[in-house]
Amino acid sequence: MNTEFEDNWSTQVRKGVIELCVLNALSGGRLYGYDIVRQLRDLDGLFIAEGTVYPLLSRLKREKFVRTRLEESPQGPARKYYELTDLGRRQLTAMNDYWRRIGEAVAELQRKGTKR
Amino acid sequence: MTLSDEARRHLDRYLEEMRASLGHSERDGIADIEQDIRDHIDAELGERPSPVSADDLDAVLNRLGSPRQWVLAADAGPSAEVAIPHGRSAEDWLAYASLALLLLGFVLPFFIPVSWLVARWTVARFEQRAEHLGTRRWLLYPPLALVSVAILLLALFWPFGAFAELGMVVAQKVGSVGSDRFPPIAALAVAAGGLGGYWIVVGVACALGERAVRFLFHPFAEGFRRWHAWWLSGAGAILALGAAIAFLGFR
User: Fold this and answer.
1) What is the pTM of this model?
2) Chain A contacts of B83, Cβ < 8 Å?
3) What per-residue confidence (pLDDT) applies to B82?
4) Do B73 and A56 make contact, defined as CB atoms within 8 angstroms?
5) B145, B155, B154: which is closest to B205 by C-alpha?
6) CA B126, CA B142: separation in Å to the nearest integer?
């Protein structure tokens, strides 16, 4: 097994999938940044550096896939919450659909491979 | 949550570096990211007793990654950088190379500064990717530590020899009218006084060039602040004063 190749490949996969993870994390409702970081950090295999999520959120906001809202917090200063916009929801549906098709295609090839 | 004064200074510096790296981005983006950083810190440390220490804050900032990383991900078309958990990247090999060059440097000293340069460059690349050094620090830190200690000792003590020679000259001049004990003590007092005066100047220079000191001794001097430099000036002043008293006392 070529470890370097596998690492590079898995890094590329994770790079490609991180937006999908962030958008899916927000699909259940509004979250503040730290909650998103915590959800992604706890996922096995994602190995995400904490500081990479916020610039990504900033970019998703620029793309108008998410919007932010400052809300008072009983624990301290006002917190910035992120939520999906309608455009973001449509984008997420499309991305999830694409992800499902990729998964099915890979699974199909795996099945064919094991049958031979 | 309240930050200690030192922690507040660390946060201010982190945000300042982040703003500097995002200098060309629009103001809203910077304000957004700054708010995110503050929220993150508040969420991580909100339960801690106030004031939160600089060490606790630094741990959170380290996990967030280098303040310079924000420009990479905020402006990048493709996704943000992702931490690589293991494997052999080019930086890994550079880390091995820096240690190998250091070992070679014990035979051919020319390679010691080269190993330092390679290690510094490699650390910078890891920081740019917002990746923790992990166990690779044991490869990178030896050349960095060796050269940093050498620079530190040289910066603090190089003029001692010259001051000692000056002390001998002064001692012999004044010693001709004093006791036998006088010359060596006077020579030492002159040398120590000169060194104290030099430390005062170095302390002031370090206070003015706080960032330069952190850069030169990176990554060991991240906690260096202006008041550390004033300590050096203070130590220099005490040394110079003690030396003056000793000189006059034995005269």
Assistant:
1) 0.49
2) 47-49, 52
3) 43
4) yes
5) B155
6) 17
